[in-house]
Sequence to fold (88 residues):
Amino acid sequence: MEGGANAVAEAPAAGVPVVASHIPGNVGMLGQNYPGYYPVGDENALALLLERAQADTAFYESLKEWCTARRPLTLPEHERNALGDLIE
Fold:
């Protein structure tokens, strides 16, 4: 489990598609409507999602586009400004 959040956080930074469990931390990073979620603890759903990402080019591209669109949120300037806003 260690490092999972890092991988999910780094995926949008690199514009790399990711599949993730539907937990609050992942939803906070990827957005409520991200199409690459599977239910927590549901290995069958995870397997199906991975198979779909491999076989369905349009689905894979939708994950990639979503992560690329989230990329600006991971830039150091954005994080610095958000932290400053939070402190204020």
Notes: DSSP finds five helices and two strands in the chain. The mean pLDDT is 89. Residues 4-87 form one domain. The helical segments are 4-14, 24-30, 43-55, 57-70, 76-87.
